[in-house]
Amino acid sequence: MAGHTPTLPAPFSNAVSPLLNDLYQVTMAYAYFKGGRHEEHAVFDLFFRKHPFKGEFTIFAGLEECLRLVDHFGFTADDIEYIRETLPGVSEPFLEWLAGLSTAGVTVKAIAEGSVVFPRLPLLRISGPLGVCQLLETTLLNLVNYASLMATNAARFVQAAGPDARLLEFGLRRAQGPDGGMSASKYSYMGGFHGTSNVAAGKAFGIPIRGTHAHSFVCSFVSLDDVPDPTVTSADGSRSVNLATEAAGCLTELGFDAETTNAGEFAAFVAYAVAFPDTFLALVDTYSTLDSGVPNFMAVALALARLGYQPRGIRLDSGDLAALSIAARNMFAAAASQLASDPAAALAFRNLNIVASDSINEAFLHTIAESGHSIDTFGIGTNLVTCQAQPALGCVFKLVQIGDAPRIKLSQNIAKVTVPGAKLAYRLHGHDEFPILDVMVLESEEPPRAGEPFLCRHPLNEGERVRVKPRSVEPLLTTLYSDSSVVGELPSLESVRSHCLVQQGVFKPQTQVKHPSPYRVYLSDALYTLLHDLWLRETAVPELS
Amino acid sequence: MAGHTPTLPAPFSNAVSPLLNDLYQVTMAYAYFKGGRHEEHAVFDLFFRKHPFKGEFTIFAGLEECLRLVDHFGFTADDIEYIRETLPGVSEPFLEWLAGLSTAGVTVKAIAEGSVVFPRLPLLRISGPLGVCQLLETTLLNLVNYASLMATNAARFVQAAGPDARLLEFGLRRAQGPDGGMSASKYSYMGGFHGTSNVAAGKAFGIPIRGTHAHSFVCSFVSLDDVPDPTVTSADGSRSVNLATEAAGCLTELGFDAETTNAGEFAAFVAYAVAFPDTFLALVDTYSTLDSGVPNFMAVALALARLGYQPRGIRLDSGDLAALSIAARNMFAAAASQLASDPAAALAFRNLNIVASDSINEAFLHTIAESGHSIDTFGIGTNLVTCQAQPALGCVFKLVQIGDAPRIKLSQNIAKVTVPGAKLAYRLHGHDEFPILDVMVLESEEPPRAGEPFLCRHPLNEGERVRVKPRSVEPLLTTLYSDSSVVGELPSLESVRSHCLVQQGVFKPQTQVKHPSPYRVYLSDALYTLLHDLWLRETAVPELS
């Protein structure tokens, strides 16, 4: 924006600009401008009405990108020219105003990124000149909706897989284009995943990257002729061996038959082990998992173990993953027993990691947790990144106050009525600092205080009231942007992720995937009264006769 | 890439780079390099196995972005440094090779973007050095999968809405981040949508943009006090009037009661009409659609009509859209009758457009097509851009030949067996140029010729054969990139869209949304034989006793 030096890096995606917007934001801005209302002070809340995935929790994500948008907000001369051509109805003074537009007057309050949040809570509260705030709506929603959905989905997968599992995001090829893939990697990590296959996300966000090889690698080998130099040096550097010869001997030693294992696959594993002797992990389902893939892997793994390397393990990518993992584990255990006289080799077979991938979804994780499996790591792609179970979160951005007047958006669907007014939100904690409920309070009111009773009311159910005497009161909305700059330092992705994992623990009754408990978000008495007064005032009484 | 001047613009998203890749592509490239195989000539096919949405057609999209990727492919020094840090196992010569990597040896053949395509057909065929081709896999899949899914979904919505409807993409706020939103706009237009609300997509791709105002605009007005200057000049410039006064008179004239219509909404419509007198379209469901929104709209619309303007119409965004559209149309018709003595005003009420939005999906379009409605234009967001009915297309990228050796990927799931070999594909046309079937043929074979019988075989069903004597033969795969440059000119989005609409007509039996007919993709006899020979050769015979 004119004369402003941004304090944050630019938005991650080059698609983010003030034009990444629904046209109606521009036409509305013009109507406000034309009516002289564009500088009126307005307050907008960004919130959602219903948890995704039929759950009882949502993780708020996307905040840093929102702040980058606000910090870098400004139309280019090109943008203005495009609007001039496309909207011939708008006036030159409006285009001049747009060209000079800045977010200098905009204040952003928000809940910390990575927090567990609930319906109707303002995740972001944007206040400032009506014309500017209106132009932020669509882009903010775009940046929050998918990020929060993704982080929430990831957290659900992590919960479903159980505390010992490691989860890797493998969805890049099925995401909504390049930036969809980047967002999926970032926000699944925020929600609790342990790594990604997406190298660009590793580089951009510092996320651990993981990967081995694909079926095409195995298919590209026909025989050992395709491995001209199968030499591997031992881990201690003392000797070099022909890994192909060693592994062929191991195959026989382990009781497998080179006639029934696939020779191209064997060659592929040798070649891969030559390249990565200290991190050897093989995809074993190209031909036949238990008859060829696992035996070939075990042969190469034993040869590597005898060179002082710890092979990593196998990846299963088709078939009955749970049954195959158990069968493979049994084969590893049998080898370890057979190799009792070679303790290092036996140990290597006890330390193997089984990775499973192949259209895994949350329901599958539940099912195999009950039926039993021997999978250590899950690679999850399509159903994670597309959020198969519910592909969109419904955050909305609603005007709640203009000047001094609180505003309401009514609907024939009562659940869609908005909570009016410039408000703040507090989390009231009880014994052991566990949260009791969240309460929204008008900014002009006295906030709740520790040790003092505070009347909280259900927004729609007149009779449902509760007087809470909190041990401590946590303000949820803090000012993160004002006077053209970010307030304080933004946390790193790593620390947002830690916060998110802590929050998932605090809200255990809500985040557990089976039979979660709902959590309450109430209103102060004054806010309840305001909501219902406005509701009556804005609704006509039809005359029936 | 080193020393290469790209012939195409850079990929649209800044997230596209050789690192936008699964890590295993890099580790495989290293294993190929280490084994001296990275320069071996390889052929990969990009294809899908099953139509999305339980349908019988798919639209191929994303090609231009794939070609941009290939044309701009190259690692930066930064990228190399990141790989050096993250993969300590790889050698310096490999990193040097990566740093100098180019797609100079890569040839891309593809089916024309916007074509109707079928399972197993190679949409893209990538050939060149094994190491480079492997590194293209993930990014190509990312660029094709969502694009094709989106274009196909859009085409289905267009078919379901019927030939008279206009469809607008409104999904930016629910897409997978910024670039997901841009892709949704581009590829829904390609599939047959008529416009988008996304201004950035309008600017970037030349798509028509549409939009009016939101509920927040309506909520921001309490009364006419918020419209200090409601002056509008007539279309012919001859006079200026106070639109608020005129419209208030019209409200009474049309038989509505200002006591039951919402005053803030009335003020909002006046303000919007002052800004856009010649394109006035009002969102009418903020308070009560039929009791307040439509009457307020009609009052302002009549005032505008008397100033010589044609108001555009209304948008419905909640409630029973079909019933409300019929009720609103009846109110317009009643007004037109009442205004018989003022033919221009009466005509204005006969020309109004009813736009509907609110979680519209394909099933809804079918339902209301049967039950009846009066909607002219559908604004479709979430369910379009997230492809709710099936959120991912499963394109894969499979090695089919290396050197002179055709390769196959087997699977215990027979439907997943790949068709091996460097091949081409032809569409055989019969009478009236209608397509009979598509056939894949080894590149080394004689292709099918017009007027000559050609034996076509089902890839898996041994007995299913057909001898086709085509009227004409259309080669499906043409070379689009070779020797470091694009071959010929890429078509504009507008011409890809036209091609796509023509294709939807040609494949009417497949693209009709109800009871579509399947279309056949067969193999030449030689390709059938190769497939089954390789299958037997790569499968071990387990010994049972």
Short description:
Two copies of one chain form a homodimer. With 545 residues, the first copy, chain A, is an alpha/beta fold.
Provide the descriptors you would attach to this structure in a database record:
545 residues; 7-stranded antiparallel sheet; alpha/beta; TIM Barrel; homodimer; 39% helix; 18 helices; phosphoprotein (chains A, B)
Can you walk me through this structure?
Chains A, B: One of its GO terms (cellular component) is cytosol. Chains A, B: Keywords: Glycosyltransferase, Ligase, Phosphoprotein, Pyridine nucleotide biosynthesis, Transferase. Chains A, B: One of its GO terms (biological process) is NAD+ biosynthetic process via the salvage pathway. Chains A, B: Pathway: Cofactor biosynthesis; NAD(+) biosynthesis; nicotinate D-ribonucleotide from nicotinate: step 1/1. Chains A, B: Residues 19-145 form the Nicotinate phosphoribosyltransferase N-terminal domain. Two copies of one chain form a homodimer. Chain A is α/β, with parallel strands linked by helices. The first copy, chain A, has a domain at 160-385: Aldolase class I (TIM Barrel). Chain A contains 18 helices and 23 strands. Chain A has a seven-stranded antiparallel beta sheet with strand order 15-14-1-5-3-21-22. Chain A has a six-stranded parallel beta sheet with strand order 7-6-13-12-11-10. In chain A, a hairpin with a 7-residue loop joins strand 18 (454-457) and strand 19. In chain A, helix 2 (63-72) packs antiparallel against helix 5 (130-161), helix 6 (177-191) packs across helix 16 (493-506) and helix 9 packs across helix 11. Chain A is elongated. The N and C termini of chain A lie far apart (58 Å). The model of chain A has no long low-confidence stretch (mean pLDDT 94).
